[in-house]
Design brief:
Layout (H helix, E strand, L loop, with lengths): L9 E5 L4 H12 L3 E6 L2 H15 L4 E4 L5 H15 L4 E4 L9 E2 L2 E2 L8 H27 L5 E6 L28 H20 L5 E8 L8 H8 L14 H8 L10 E4 L7
Parallel strand pairs: 1-2, 1-4, 2-3, 4-7, 7-8, 8-9
Antiparallel strand pairs: 5-6
Helix pairs in contact: 1-7, 3-4, 4-5
């Protein structure tokens, strides 16, 4: 099973302190790789990297980086190359989670009320951040002599539109109903476009690029919401937070050496309906 090994591979993970980011990092370490954790909070990254190193002794480290700022991403890339000498993989995982909140009489999740500030910030993190990390870490992979693998974390909602009936509030007027904000769909669909572009850009070096489209993860959501969601999933449940680890290792490893430009749904069958 050596084709699944990530031994001696340096894998950069954005949004590494989040729910799925932590799982991606564990997956890399468990497969023998060295996760390099990027997020906004240095304290959270220090605690998490210490936790990983206490179990795997894999030289895991964390660095506070604003991925929307090009100078910050470049400095992080330079620092990682100085420490490790190379980069073998990148997981573009960081994204804002748009809120469906109302303020006074206005629901700001709705398209007609959606603020430009939130639009710009969501796209900056989810798309611009992924572009900047790909620009620097992907280029580093392209120069290392053996290429590497980039994984863009899209969503099932990069493949289908959100079913806004899931968020319906029976006590709200029709023009105040909460909805999944537009930025989520735009960002997650945009990552699929970025994936296809990059998959042909450095293919000869070779740097592969693929997208995964996870379904929703069970994380303490209200029972009524859960019931509605799972009724739309053929497997009859949401994902466990650790169920994407195998896919992550597969796409980073030699086991997927001829998979490039793929968009992989991992949603319990939801987008098959």
């Amino acid at each position: 099973m050596d084709i699944f090994s990530l031994k001696n591979r340096i894998i950069v993970i954005t949004g590494a302190a989040g729910l799925l980011g932590r799982q991606h990092a564990w997956a890399v370490a468990e497969a023998g790789g060295t996760p390099v954790l990027l997020d906004l909070s240095q304290a959270a990254l220090d605690d998490f990297s210490a936790e990983i190193n206490s179990r795997f002794s894999c030289d895991c480290s964390g660095r506070a980086v604003d991925i929307t700022d090009e100078a910050s991403v470049k400095a992080a890339c330079d620092s990682i190359l100085s420490r490790h000498g190379k980069v073998d993989g990148l997981i573009n995982n960081a994204a804002n989670n748009p809120k469906m909140e109302a303020s006074g009489t206005t629901n700001f999740s709705r398209l007609e009320n959606f603020p430009m500030e939130i639009w710009s910030n969501d796209l900056a993190v989810g798309l611009t951040g992924s572009y900047l990390c790909t620009k620097y870490f992907g280029h580093a992979m392209a120069k290392n002599g053996h290429g590497g693998s980039i994984i863009n974390v899209s969503s099932d909602l990069g493949l289908i539109a959100p079913d806004q009936r899931l968020y319906r509030n029976e006590n709200a007027a029709s023009d105040q109903q909460p909805v999944k904000p537009v930025t989520y769909s735009v960002v997650k669909t945009g990552l699929i476009g970025l994936t296809r572009y990059i998959s042909t850009y450095w293919a000869d070096v070779p740097v592969r690029c693929n997208a995964i489209c996870p379904g929703g993860v069970e994380n303490g959501q209200p029972a009524d919401f859960m019931k509605e969601v799972i009724s739309r999933i053929p497997m009859g449940r949401m994902a466990r937070k650790d169920e994407y680890k195998g896919l992550i290792v597969f796409l980073l490893s030699e086991a997927s050496s001829y998979i490039n430009g793929a968009v992989i749904a991992a949603d319990g069958g939801r987008t098959a309906w």
